[in-house]
Amino acid sequence: MTITSKSSRVSKNRRNSAQPLQRLLNYGSQYRQQVWQATSCSIINTILDLAPPWLVGIAVDILVEKQNSVFAKLGVKDVFWQFFLLSFITIIVWILESISEYAYNKLWRNLAQNIQHNLRLDAYNHVQELDSAYFEESSTGGLMSILNDDINQLEDFLNFGANQIISIIASIIILIGGSLLILPFSITLVAMLPIPFIIWGSFTYQKLLEVRYAEVRERVSFLNSRLANNISGITTIKSFTAQNYESARLAGESEAYRKSNAKAIKLSAAFVPLIRMLVLAGFTALLFWGGMATYAGKISIGNYSVLLVLVQRLLWPFVELGEIFDKYQRSMASTKRVMDLLDTPINITAGEKSLPIEQVRGEIDFQEVTFAYHNREPVIKKLSLHIPAGKTIAIVGSTGSGKSTLVKLLLRLYDISSGAIAIDGINIQKLNLDDLRRSIGLVSQDVFLFHGTIAENIAYGTFDATDEQIIAAAKIAEADNFILRLPQGYETIVGERGQKLSGGQRQRIAIARAVLKNPPILVLDEATSAVDNETEAAIQRSLERITVNRTTIAIAHRLSTIRNADCIYVMEYGELVESGTHEQLLEKNWIYAGLWNVQSGVK
User: Fold this and answer.
1) Which strands, in side-by-side order, build the sheet including 575-580?
2) Cα–Cα dist 312/283, whole Å
3) 402 CB burial (10 A radius; 0-12, 13-18, 19+)
4) Rounded CA gap, 469 and 518, in Å?
5) What are the DSSP calls for 533-561, one per residue?
6) Residue 296 — φ and ψ, nearest 5°?
7) What phi and psi values does residue 381 have, to the nearest 5 degrees?
8) Pairing verdict, β 575-580 and 567-572
9) Angular region, 393: left φ>0, alpha ψ -120 to 50, beta rest
10) Which of 70, 223, 317, 388 has the smallest number of CB atoms closer than 10 Å to its CB?
């Protein structure tokens, strides 16, 4: 994919931009009580945090006014007891401030962790429900970026940014109200004049940053995709000595990410100096006009000193708005990507009819089935096929004829375009998906083993299996001997994707996994295509045992592995063009016979 095509995708995402904050609030409605608790603690902490300047002002008032101070008017005439009372109040305020700070920190951070945890699980569970077509259009690195990086960005904002915004809003309300009580309106107006401009500038910057950070999140997704792709294909890269080529491609992705970040940084870095000038204007105005009003006796020295500190405390936090909005826009860009993922429609909906595995006979019918991948020509064309229960049938044909696609349709990894597929006479679209897939065991040519022990991989899908059952399945799959020769036996770690094992060993573990699952329907998709003759013979022996009285669909290129099937079907261009037993097909002397002659060396 070129940089140009990626830019067009970024632009498309901008056009489709909704209100990520509103979508997040809708999602987080279950946390409403936690949000209110955290918000309340933030407001209380802000009030208490603004108290020390007032206490300093009272101290100044006691020193200047003595018997006419605020406390004296309340009945405490002695200066000693006035300072004693002031000190006591100061201690209480600081203790309460510390408690409220602990409370809001704990509440906001726990809220961030809860939302992050549940959002990641919800997004992952949603991804698991999407059909295979979605994964063909998406990259692993891109999905990882959303499920990990984007959700972490949201956590960073909730940890700190939400409290800072609430604190600033509360400070404005408290200080404007307090100023109107003790200051002439004209001086209050002068002191607060920069605030509307600061707020207007903040929202203007926010809109400008929104576009740039949307591009940043897209770029990091492309970068993660490239990294994930290259790390997975490192053996191919080395074998083709393509390290320099891939380094150049990664450098291009990283440079695009760096440039998109630089554009955002260029804008966000200018915010603080501009806000600082507005803050300076407000503070200087109060310093001058407030000083003149104090000199004229309109306000007391204590109130003047309090207001100088409080207005500074009010205006300077606006300087932090740059960082706050930076975090906000990063988190909203990430939120949009996560919510877009959650909004991705689930095209394969489960049916409501249950099918207990013990009741499955295994009769399968494909009835006039047609299927096409997205924006492609049909790969299956009006195909009809009846598979009796307990029988073994084989499907052969050239690459791309549609053999493996039939398996995907049977498992409902894709839904058919027209026609019907039935198991025991029940349309699979009416069946509960878990029941459908629980009744089918798949052993494919591309075996996937999870990082963990051999025992864990054999028991995958049958999580309550005992050690004895795992070993018995391994023996049937002729895997027990090689497993026992490994240093830790069944507790041997196989590595990511089973890379510590050979292809034949991985294949036998996959067969053991299917044996342990004990499904009434078994699908073997090129199960021996990538193994040597000795391993193939061992696998073939195990397959002969596990296919007895079990509906089996074997897809193969090696015709020797399916010659004993009850019926063999030949596929070409999405259609069944030939069928019969091995001997019958040889007698017809057509496509199957030609394939057999090529593989057996007959001229």
Assistant:
1) 440-444, 521-525, 551-555, 392-397, 567-572, 575-580
2) 7
3) buried
4) 11
5) HHHHHHHHHHHHHHTTTSEEEEE-S-GGG
6) -80, -5
7) -125, 105
8) antiparallel
9) beta
10) 388
Write down the residue that tokens 């394969």 correspond to.
Answer: 348
Measuring CA to CA, which residue among 200, 433, 156, 188 is closest to residue 314?
188
Q: What is the DSSP string of 56-71?
A: HHHHHHHHHHGGGSHH
Task: Report the SS3 class of residue 420.
Answer: strand
Phi, psi of 363 (to 5 degrees): -80, 130
* pLDDT for residue 9: 39
Contact 61, 182 (CB under 8 A): no
C-beta neighbour count of 428 within 10 angstroms: 25
- How far apart CA 424 and CA 386 sit, in angstroms, is 11
Give SS3 for 34: helix
CA end-to-end distance (rounded Å), the chain: 46
List, in sequence order, every residue forming a beta bridge with 555; answer none if it has no partner: 395, 525
Q: Count Cβ atoms below 10 Å from residue 551 Cβ, excluding itself.
A: 25
Distances in whole angstroms, Cα of residue 75 to Cα of each of 301, 526, 581: 21, 95, 111
The pLDDT assigned to 548 comes to: 78
- The two tokens of residue 412 are 């409902």
Buried b / exposed e across 520-532, counting CB within 10 Å, b at 16+? Answer: bbbbbbbbbbbbe
Measure the CA–CA gap between 75 and 78, rounded to whole angstroms. 9
So what's the pLDDT on residue 240?
67
d(CA 436, CA 411): 7
**Secondary structure (3-state) at 273:** helix
Return the biggest CA–CA distance within the chain: 122
Helix, strand, coil percent values for the chain (each to nearest 5): 70, 10, 20
CB 512 within 8 A of CB 455: no
Q: Which residues contact 46 (CB under 8 A, 6 or more apart)?
A: 166, 167, 170, 171, 174
pTM over 0.85: no
| Cβ count near 67 (within 10 Å) | 11
CA distance 463 to 50: 58
In sequence order, the 6+-apart residues with CB closer than 8 A to the CB of 69 are: 58, 61, 62, 82
Q: What are the CA-CA distances from residue 162 to residues 18, 191, 211, 525, 589 (Å)?
A: 21, 26, 21, 53, 76
Whole-angstrom Cα distance, residue 59 to residue 62? Answer: 5
Candidate from 108-117, 188-197, 282-291, 440-449 with smallest mean pLDDT:
188-197
Please give the full DSSP string across 221-257, using - where no structure is assigned: HHHHHHHHHHHHTHHHHHHTT-HHHHHHHHHHHHHHH
Select from 327, 372, 358, 388 the least CA-distant residue to 553: 388
Arithmetic mean of pLDDT, 277-304? 76
Q: Which residues are within 8 A (CB) of 226 and not within 5 positions of it... i.e. 6 or more apart? A: 141, 249, 250, 253
